[in-house]
Amino acid sequence: MSSISKVKSSPDLAILEKFRSFAFINDDFEKESFSTALKNVLVTKFYSFENLSFLCYVIDIISKFPKNLVFFKNSLIEKCHVVIKSENDKPDGKSLIALDRALGYLRENHNFLLRRNKTLFEKWKSYGFKEALFYKYPEFSQFLLDSSLASQIKVTKDEIQEIANEPAILIEGKWTRFSDLKKRFDYKFSPKFKETFLYDKQSDEVFTYLDTKKGLVKHHPYLNALDPVGKISSSEYQAILKKSHQFERDFDKPKRNYKYILQIVTSKMPPGKSSLSKSNLFDFLLRPRHPYFRLIDPDTKNVHIIGYGFWNWKDKMGFFGPLVTDQGRFRSPDIWEYRNCSKRIVTNIPLNKEEMKRFTYFCKKFVNDDINFGKNLAFNFMNHNCTSFVKEAVKYSFSKQIITNASLDEIICEISPNILRKLAVFLKSSVVSIKEKFISFFPDFVKKVDSFLFALIDKIKNVVIAFFVSFLASFLGGIRGKNGRKIKDPEKEEVISPPLLSPVNWFRYSLFKFDLPGKIQIWQMKQKSTFVCDNPLKLTISP
pLDDT tens digits, residue range 88-135? Predict the structure, then answer.
């Protein structure tokens, strides 16, 4: 009988009470001197995964019987501290992290020796999970964090359960213990999608934890981008429908026919502590983040979530490449459903059946053409990004025009300090007034010449500014990248190239119009059908 089996088959702790010191030798639990036992368990064979599992299990048992085994407990903690400190730089850091986490369950203040554990524990708490699970089941909590399962579960209504002294999660509608989950699933990084996926070991199918009341199910976020990923109750649907009917639009049919709900979702990051982070620059350009869609079906109450983006741009583009034109992808759920923010802004729009079909077709056409036929979609942070996708999809679905782009003039105005804004408005009005009064004394032909000269000067000014901005943009990737399909008309295959490849574009001031999440948020906050959720953790589908 193996050591773990011996311990588990002795609920009265007869073995541990009899052997106050033990060794773990050749997968067996034997009486031995305390020092030799610790040497064998912690040092000689410490990096064996089975040994670590056994040790963590024994620690858990000791924590339940502190009076009988107080000397053993304190000695064990002390020896483990020595091992952690001395082995902290070893390549196999996961074993040390798990051991330190298990020991945290025994320490009076439940603290950790390793900084990594402190960071992970704070993340675990921010996800809303029970703190005790982090200590009691170190292998489980580490698996959830490393596989990204933790971030997926946190946004759902489900909670982690304990079954027969084991943690358990919902898999395909059934509560499944961690020991069974490990047998079936593992996780690995995908170089193509730049993400870590959980997969079935036998079939290699990717699984994702969704808010569908079934938990972990077969779902690839990129290849199954149009499948339902959430489910709401009838009461939640009615609340959202009522809110959506406040959206100001042309209702060509009775409102009862507009029962499909399209949600435009954006996020807002919290302001930093510095005064600069609370400026107009941050409020307009940096705090507003990434718009995407949700579509709610009135019959099934299923929720479809789809967003478009270039999720790993920092690793690929770096500081000198944010304007590189590269390949974008659709994802469901959108990656921003998992990311923390200070506000989630949701605008609800009612659609009739024909409009819903047009929206679905718009997304399906681009997704399937990309996946099935390799018609790679372009992505550029300047004017072909997540905001561009939302604008074009809305326009195609029900002919609503959302102004999402901002010119250089508008950006400069929006990010300027308030005092400079007021000064600029005053100077502009004063100059215009003086110019009009001065010109009024001249004949009409002089006025026309004067008007032409002012227009010419303004055009020359714009050309000079455009060249200067293009010069800077070229260093940020505006001249680099590859061609890709434009997301505009699904029936056409328009191609866009890196914006500064053409020399003519270097002098086009009109080229520099940026599709910005900040512009969509300004529009959202004017809509009566918009609601805002502060510091959201779960999916913010209903108000």
Answer: 545 446 666 777 777 777 676 777 877 788 889 999 999 999 988 988
**What digits encode the pLDDT tens for the residues 29-47?**
444 454 554 455 444 444 3
Distance of CA 436 to the CA centre of its chain: 53
Q: Which of 401, 380, 382 has its CA nearest to residue 390? A: 401
Q: What whole-number distance in Å separates Cα of residue 530 and Cα of residue 543?
A: 9
In eight-state DSSP terms, residue 324 is -
Residues 347, 457 contacting (CB under 8 angstroms):
no
Write phi, then psi, for 296 (nearest 5 degrees).
Answer: -110, 125
Judge residue 189's burial from the number of C-beta atoms within 10 Å of its C-beta, 0-12 exposed, 13-18 middle, 19 or more buried: exposed
CA distances from 420 to 282, 423, 424, 425, 427 (A): 16, 5, 6, 9, 10
**Both structure tokens of 320:** 């000198």
What three-state secondary structure class fits 391?
Answer: helix
Q: 463: closest CA among 503, 410, 508, 510?
A: 508
Taking the C-alpha atoms of residue 164 and residue 162, their distance in angstroms, rounded to an integer, is 7
What is the dihedral angle through the alpha carbons of 331, 337, 342, 348, rounded to the nearest 10 degrees?
90
How deeply is 186 buried, as exposed, middle or buried, from its count of CB atoms within 10 A (0-12, 13-18, 19+)? middle
| CA angle at 145 for the pair 140 and 150, rounded to the nearest 5° | 90
Count of beta carbons in the 10 Å neighbourhood of residue 217: 16
Question: What pLDDT, in 10s, does the model give residues 375-397?
Answer: 999 998 888 999 999 999 999 99
What is the dihedral angle through the alpha carbons of 52, 99, 159, 307, rounded to the nearest 10 degrees? -100
Which residues, other chains included, contact 213 with Cβ-Cβ below 8 Å and sequence gap of 6+?
Answer: 173, 231
Instruction: Give 239-249 pLDDT, tens digit per residue.
Output: 999 999 999 99
The amino acid at 396: Y
Do 267 and 341 meet the contact criterion of CB atoms below 8 Å apart? yes
Cα 121 versus chain centre, distance: 19
* CA dist list (Å): 346 to 288, 353, 359, 539: 13, 21, 18, 11
C-alpha dihedral, 86 to 90 to 92 to 94, nearest 10°: 50
How many C-alpha atoms does 454 have within 13 Å on its Cβ side?
11
For residues 12 and 65, give the distance between their C-alpha atoms in angstroms, rounded to a whole number. Answer: 10
Task: Rounding to the nearest 10 degrees, give the CA dihedral for residues 99, 103, 109, 115.
Answer: -10
Contact 392, 487 (CB under 8 A): yes
